[in-house]
Amino acid sequence: MTVRVKICGITSSEQAQMAQQYGADALGLVIYEKSPRYVNLEQAAKIRASITNDCLAIVLLVNPSELLVKQVNGQEYIIQRTATKLTRTKQTTTHK
User: Which one is the CATH code of 6-95: 3.90.1170.50, 3.40.640.10, 3.20.20.70, 1.10.287.990?
Assistant: First the structure.
Protein backbone atom coordinates (compact mmCIF):
# COMPACT_ATOMS: atom_id res chain seq x y z
CA MET A 1 0.00 0.00 0.00
CA THR A 2 1.35 3.41 -0.98
CA VAL A 3 0.85 6.23 1.50
CA ARG A 4 0.24 9.68 0.02
CA VAL A 5 0.64 12.85 2.06
CA LYS A 6 -1.47 16.00 1.69
CA ILE A 7 -0.62 19.11 3.67
CA CYS A 8 -3.58 21.47 3.95
CA GLY A 9 -3.70 25.11 4.93
CA ILE A 10 -0.66 26.29 2.98
CA THR A 11 -0.48 30.10 3.19
CA SER A 12 2.78 30.97 1.44
CA SER A 13 5.07 29.90 -1.37
CA GLU A 14 7.76 29.21 1.23
CA GLN A 15 5.50 26.73 3.02
CA ALA A 16 4.61 25.10 -0.30
CA GLN A 17 8.27 24.71 -1.24
CA MET A 18 9.15 23.28 2.17
CA ALA A 19 6.28 20.78 2.11
CA GLN A 20 7.31 19.61 -1.37
CA GLN A 21 10.93 19.37 -0.30
CA TYR A 22 9.90 16.99 2.47
CA GLY A 23 7.85 14.82 0.13
CA ALA A 24 4.24 16.05 0.18
CA ASP A 25 2.19 14.58 -2.65
CA ALA A 26 -0.53 17.24 -2.47
CA LEU A 27 -0.91 20.72 -1.00
CA GLY A 28 -4.19 22.29 0.07
CA LEU A 29 -5.16 25.95 -0.11
CA VAL A 30 -8.14 27.31 1.80
CA ILE A 31 -10.20 29.98 0.05
CA TYR A 32 -12.71 30.54 2.84
CA GLU A 33 -12.55 33.89 4.62
CA LYS A 34 -13.56 32.52 8.04
CA SER A 35 -10.60 30.14 8.12
CA PRO A 36 -7.40 31.15 9.93
CA ARG A 37 -5.55 29.57 6.96
CA TYR A 38 -7.43 31.68 4.37
CA VAL A 39 -5.66 32.85 1.21
CA ASN A 40 -7.26 35.08 -1.40
CA LEU A 41 -7.16 34.30 -5.13
CA GLU A 42 -4.07 36.42 -5.72
CA GLN A 43 -2.17 34.68 -2.92
CA ALA A 44 -3.42 31.30 -4.12
CA ALA A 45 -2.15 31.98 -7.64
CA LYS A 46 1.31 32.89 -6.29
CA ILE A 47 1.40 29.77 -4.15
CA ARG A 48 0.18 27.64 -7.08
CA ALA A 49 3.05 28.95 -9.19
CA SER A 50 5.48 27.49 -6.65
CA ILE A 51 3.91 24.02 -6.70
CA THR A 52 5.66 21.62 -9.05
CA ASN A 53 3.83 19.45 -11.58
CA ASP A 54 4.45 16.29 -9.56
CA CYS A 55 2.60 17.73 -6.55
CA LEU A 56 -1.19 18.08 -6.63
CA ALA A 57 -2.72 21.47 -5.76
CA ILE A 58 -6.09 21.27 -3.99
CA VAL A 59 -8.40 24.15 -3.11
CA LEU A 60 -11.03 24.05 -0.40
CA LEU A 61 -14.11 26.22 -1.00
CA VAL A 62 -17.17 26.57 1.22
CA ASN A 63 -20.44 27.58 -0.46
CA PRO A 64 -18.62 29.25 -3.36
CA SER A 65 -20.28 31.50 -5.88
CA GLU A 66 -20.35 30.29 -9.46
CA LEU A 67 -17.91 33.09 -10.34
CA LEU A 68 -15.41 31.96 -7.70
CA VAL A 69 -15.58 28.38 -8.95
CA LYS A 70 -14.91 29.59 -12.50
CA GLN A 71 -12.01 31.75 -11.31
CA VAL A 72 -10.44 28.88 -9.39
CA ASN A 73 -10.99 26.44 -12.26
CA GLY A 74 -9.11 28.87 -14.46
CA GLN A 75 -6.12 28.21 -12.22
CA GLU A 76 -6.52 24.43 -12.86
CA TYR A 77 -7.06 23.66 -9.20
CA ILE A 78 -8.97 20.70 -7.91
CA ILE A 79 -12.11 21.88 -6.18
CA GLN A 80 -13.74 20.39 -3.12
CA ARG A 81 -17.16 21.85 -2.45
CA THR A 82 -18.02 20.93 1.11
CA ALA A 83 -21.63 22.11 1.15
CA THR A 84 -22.72 19.54 -1.42
CA LYS A 85 -19.86 17.09 -0.90
CA LEU A 86 -19.03 17.45 -4.56
CA THR A 87 -15.49 16.99 -5.81
CA ARG A 88 -14.50 18.04 -9.29
CA THR A 89 -11.10 17.41 -10.79
CA LYS A 90 -9.64 18.95 -13.89
CA GLN A 91 -10.44 15.63 -15.59
CA THR A 92 -14.11 16.49 -14.80
CA THR A 93 -14.72 13.30 -12.82
CA THR A 94 -17.51 13.75 -10.28
CA HIS A 95 -17.95 11.76 -7.07
CA LYS A 96 -20.90 12.03 -4.70
Answer: 3.20.20.70
